[in-house]
Each structure stands twice: as structure tokens, then as C-alpha cells.
TrEMBL record:
UniProt-recorded name of the protein: Putative HTH-type transcriptional regulatory protein Igni_1394
Gene3D superfamilies tied to this protein: lambda repressor-like DNA-binding domains
Spans annotated as Disordered: 277-298
SUPFAM superfamilies attached to this UniProt entry: lambda repressor-like DNA-binding domains (SSF47413)
Keyword Transcription regulation recorded: yes
Family annotation (CDD domains): HTH_XRE
Amino acid sequence: MVRIVEKYKYIENGKVSDVVVRSNDDVFVVLGVENSAKVSKRKVGTLTMLAKGIGAKPLLVAKKSGDEELLEDVVYEKYGVAVVNLETFENILKGNKIYIRKKKSIFTVSIDSKRLKELCEEMGISMGELANYLGVSRKSVYDYIRGNKDVSVDTAIRLAELVGDEVLKPVNLEEFQGIELKVEPHTPLERELMEVTDSIHVPKGNVSVGGEARGVKFTAVVPHGDEELEWFAELSEIIDRMSVAVGYSDVPKTLENSKVKVTENLQQFLEALSGEPVEPEGDICSTDRGRHKGSQGN
């Protein structure tokens, strides 16, 4: 996999993923496996939570699903996460569009129903003529026009030959939302951070919390004993979110020349997001229990 991602901004060896990689405007959190059928629901959920926490797309890269070899330029699915083979992954990073998706046991292609209707009207093709050409029923054609039905690969090829491939819709990886796990925060500081933001807790990762506050999307790490700050610093160079270390009284050496903002408590964290002073509310600054000396960090 490194051979494929080395042309892009990437980091390896996260606790949840094998690779986090950026290609153009897309960031992917990638886990490579031999057989996607053997991946647990919890592992997929953890991958999903990391992706959501950093504003990325979760992706499984596999050779097989059960006894089936994965085909190039086909998107499969496991627990709501997109699954592709290595060749397809490389094509995605290159910006190539992938049109075929396997749903259960059927290979399908999505249609731009509005554009199909427009082209048929421009070319003077009736619904009956279209049905005859495609070898399908009129009801199927009406379903295509209404956007209620995907088509087979053979039908997609016939459609493209007749009216052009602009009627075919590429697979939208944004649709693969995965599954969210219900997990408790590791530390009181993580809990407090979630209480003052619209965010999720990321289990097992080098990211603690990700979300939004004061109109700013952020990814945060807090001290909990096994955080890898060097990895977090590298992540900050890849993602489009403000990266913040919360609960550190000194700047850890590994963060000194990074994009990560280091804050001592929740008040400083909120001020870093907004760029404006924040009036303390209750015990918003009482995060001594989560405070960590930077010299003790990684």
C-alpha cells in the first residue's frame, strides 16, 4: 500500500488505520485487510469514528470478500464502509471515477435521471423506444427517469452508447457512512470537551475528540497516557481541520514546529477556535485533572 500512497501526503501506523492519505480535496482513513468478510463490526466502527473525527472517508482495501476476489473499479460494502481492491484504491487516489457498485449479489450503476430525461427529449427518443433499445420494460425506464432504480452494467453500457456516458453517475464515497460506536470517553477532560462542543469520541486512536464548536471544525487530542503526539502532528498537515492539543501546560517537543495549537484548558481551547476571549462558565477552566506537562509528552 505504501507504494501507492507515497506520491501523496500520508501517514502510516495509526492505532486504528494503516494509512491516512490525502489526494486533492479528499482524505481517506484506510485499513488494509486480506479478506473483508472477516473484519469485525467493531473494527469497522472504530475506523468510522476516526474518519468522522478528522473529516475523512473510511475505506477498507482488501483482496477478497469471502471466497470472491474483488474486481478492479468496483466498490463493495462492509458494515456501511466502502471496500475496494488495491487497484481500485490507486485509481481513486488518481481521481478516476468509479461507476460500478456491488449491492448484495448484484453489480449496479447509478443513473443521472434528470440528465437522462433531458437527453432523451433533446434526441427525440420516446420512453418506448428507449425501453426497446435497452431490452427492458417501460416500467423500468420510468423508474430510471424518476431516479428510483439503478441499472445493470450491461444496461449502463447500452445507455452510454445511445446518449453518452454523462448519464452515468460515479459512486459517491460520501454515501458510505459506516457505523458509529457508542463508547465512553477515556478521561474526564474528554467528557468535558464533548460537553462544550458538538463532537464525537474516537476510541483507541491518536485522536481523542473530533467535531465542531463556534463554527470551526476541529480535531483534538488530550493526555491519556498512550497518545502519540508525533503522529497527531503529522495528521495536522493532512486534514482540513484545526488540530488542538488540550490539557498541556507546556508545549510538547514533538509539537513545537507543528500546526497543532497547544492549550492548557477548555477556555484556552475555545479561545483558540474562535480567536476571541471566552468568558469562563462554571468550571470550564478546572481541567487540572487532565493537565499534562509537555516535557512528559512523546
